[in-house]
Design a protein that fits this description.
Length: about 325
């Protein structure tokens, strides 16, 4: 495992990190979660990413129990806030929510601080000054070492930078993979200029880039796409032209001596702006295999072959349902 510095922070995080969105929030058993976490440590993964809303606290609760068996300085822990934790109640990035949710997350995680506290989305209803002040108070109180955001537009990032005090963002968490390259247009350069590193989610497009979804065939019964709860997150990629394009990557990966998963992860990590790629896993062997993508380098001809194989399947203006398009509210 190799490590990269996250933005302007002093956090040195593993190139491959473990997430808990669609797995440890209820889709994977406690024993499997523990086995995957142990495998992550064995593989040299030191960065663990979760959120309060994953399973309405279930993912944080699980890791709170499991990670308590490890020295606190042996791992880097990140969580997020934004989405309501109860139907019709709360949510957003008001000062009240920031302070309430950090305390609740710390209780579930069984720790006195997280290393990275992230805004899961942008809150257009709360003045950006209020949000930044509250996040700074969390850092000054020692409850978080650094702050970050996920899926913010350039306009929103600029707005936060303009009002930030001593505590500035060090991380951005966008969706980024071979099929969705939108962050390359503006976000990467803007963030790099401001000392903000990228921690990318869905580097394998919800598993589509592993090649397990075949054109003209129903999703495997044990796959995420076949799940009633999780399938909605994969559907955006399950279009015939996309699935056909992914199959054209097979000879490219074979020529490079890589699996499709390793090809996809190495492609994401080719960008120095990316500090880490978050992977999900339901079995420890998946964790160990994904970790082997660290330090892989893709030759220029391989990168060119990837672009040729994917062709029009690459989306640079794909409209994601992330709620990131709202404007900015000021005091």
């Amino acid at each position: 495992m190799e490590y990269r510095t996250l933005g302007s922070s002093d956090l040195h995080i593993s190139e491959i990190s473990l997430g808990s969105w669609l797995t440890y929030s209820g889709g994977v058993s406690r024993d499997a979660t523990q086995a995957c976490t142990r495998a992550a440590f064995d593989a040299g993964i030191n960065f663990f990413d979760t959120a309060n809303v994953y399973g309405r606290g279930a993912a944080e609760q699980a890791w709170g129990e499991i990670l308590s068996d490890y020295p606190r300085d042996s791992y880097i822990l990140a969580t997020k806030l934004f989405w309501p934790m109860a139907d019709g109640h709360g949510g957003g990035l008001s000062a009240t929510e920031v302070h309430t949710q950090i305390d609740a997350s710390l209780a579930r995680l069984r720790t006195d601080h997280v290393d990275l506290y992230q805004c899961h989305r942008f809150d257009a209803e709360t003045p950006i000054e209020e949000t930044m002040e509250a996040l700074s108070e969390v850092v000054r109180a020692g409850k978080a070492r650094f702050i970050g955001f996920s899926e913010w537009t350039p306009e929103q990032i600029h707005a936060a930078l303009e009002v930030a005090g001593a505590e500035k963002f060090v991380s951005s968490q966008p969706q980024y993979n071979m099929l969705w390259r939108g962050p390359e247009r503006e976000v990467f350069a803007l963030c790099a200029d401001q000392g903000i590193g990228q921690i990318v989610w869905s580097p394998l497009a919800q598993g589509v880039l592993t090649g397990k979804y075949l054109p003209g065939q129903a999703p495997p019964p044990d796959s995420r796409a076949a799940s009633e709860d999780m399938g909605q997150f994969v559907q955006r990629w399950l279009r015939e032209p996309v699935l056909e394009a992914v199959q054209r990557l097979r000879p490219v990966a074979r020529q490079a001596g890589l699996s499709l998963a390793h090809l996809g992860l190495a492609w994401v990590l080719r960008r120095q702006e990316v500090a880490s790629a978050i992977v999900g896993a339901s079995r420890p062997e998946q964790v160990l295999d994904n970790a082997r993508a660290s330090a892989l380098k893709l030759a220029p001809d391989t990168l060119a072959a990837i672009d040729e194989a994917l062709g029009d399947a690459v989306a640079n203006d794909f409209e994601l349902a992330i709620g990131a398009r709202a404007g900015v509210t000021h005091r």
